[in-house]
Amino acid sequence: MTSTQTTPPTHSEAELLSLGARAFEAMGLPPGDAADVASVLVMADLFGLHTHGLSRVESYGERLASGGINPRPRITVSDAAPALRMVDGDNGVGPVVGMHALRAAMEAASACGVGVAFARGSNHFGPISPYSLLAADAGFASIIGSNATTTIAPWGGSDARLGNSPIGFGVPNPGGKPFLLDMAMSVVARAKIRNALKRGEAIPDTWATDSHGVPTTDPRAALDGFLMPIGGHKGYGLALMVDLFAGLLSNAAYLTHVKSWVDAPDQPQNLGHFFILIDTRRLGSTAWLAERMTDFAAILHGSPAVQPDRPVIVPGELELARLERHRAEGLALDAETLRLLYRYAA
Q1: CB atoms within 10 A of CB 170
Q2: 135 exposed, middle or buried (CB, 10 Å; 0-12, 13-18, 19+)?
Q3: How far, CA to CA in Å, does 80 sit from each of 64, 84, 116, 198, 288?
Q4: What's the predicted TM-score (pTM) here?
Q5: Three-state DSSP state, 221
Q6: What rounded mean pLDDT belongs to the chain?
Q7: Residue 180 lies in a domain
């Protein structure tokens, strides 16, 4: 008896944007806000960052339903200085607040050469790389960060006091591939540990500790424990810096003041984000920047690879290659995410 394996259907970027927007509109978001959320999450999926893509419809949807997120926020932007914007997200969906802050920073950088936006009253805003790419495509170099729910113990501590806060850097490359670095402060994201638990797989003992601070290969024990920061005490210090900018300076919650979306899904998190943009057109012509960025990448690519089948890459190349491929060939989402999207959209 011959068994056949069904190939999952693929969807174009336009189809995913439409489906995502319809799903979030059905949850109560205005059309423009729903489109912003869909644009960030779909780009995450196109990059291959599926733990931060449209699968987030589940956690965002649960918090919208419980009243933990405001579906129709009145987001305000105020000028603290010519190049400085303060964004109050009014507890809106994170990507909505994030896109308002990105646009505010872009407007300030266009006027002043440098633009900074601090956002408060927000929630999980997806990965950083979509914002970095949007900024790069518009000619802006960027440093972008957000704080997060506490999942990491302070260096030498035995309980969670700081979040796995992501930070990203982007530099445009006119006519070529921009530099995009998007990283969190832990060795891996909790989503990877949750996925390992679902699959019944062990995890490397360098990913997390149990609740007593002892490294573990058990994903369930890891989820009850703490994530390990990158680079030991140096990663701890970098995580604090991100929270100082994203949480403290933005007048959002920080460290243990951030509410857990898992333990208190019906309460506002008051997450903070920061967007620091530089208008590269003030530094030189697009031809000047393209020539230097091309040379920069060539120097790195020219290093002989230790493993011939794994050549040296520049951060962002893998994600941008997936983006290009998925835009050309379509993208297959997992069945559960599709089911949730169609359920909400209907």
Answers
A1: 27
A2: buried
A3: 31, 5, 10, 46, 33
A4: 0.93
A5: helix
A6: 94
A7: yes
Question: For position 255, which CATH number holds?
Answer: 3.30.1370.60
Phi/psi of residue 301, nearest 5 degrees: -65, -25
DSSP string computed for 120-150? EEE-----SHHHHHHHHHTTEEEEEEE---E
What pLDDT was estimated at residue 1? 43
Lowest-confidence region among 91-100, 112-121, 219-228, 266-275: 219-228
d(CA 59, CA 52): 11
What residue has token string 């005490």? 233
| Residue matched to tokens 């956002």 | 119
Q: Residue 99 domain-assigned?
A: yes
Integer CA distances (angstroms), 72 to 58, 75, 179, in order: 18, 9, 34
Report, as an integer, the average pLDDT of 116-136: 98
Count of the separate structural domains present in the chain: 2
- Alpha carbon distance 92, 122 (integer Å): 6
d(CA 170, CA 140): 8
Residue with tokens 């979030």: 24
Q: How many CB atoms lie within 10 A of CB 49?
A: 21
What is the pLDDT confidence band of residue 151, given thresholds at 50, 70 and 90?
confident
Residues 54 and 185 in one domain: no
Q: Which residue has the tokens 């990965």?
A: 127
* Angstrom distance (rounded) from CA 136 to CA 178: 7
Which are the contacts of 75, defined by CB distance < 8 A and separation ≥ 6?
87, 88, 89, 90, 92, 96, 97, 100
Residue-range definition of the domain harbouring residue 193: 76-282
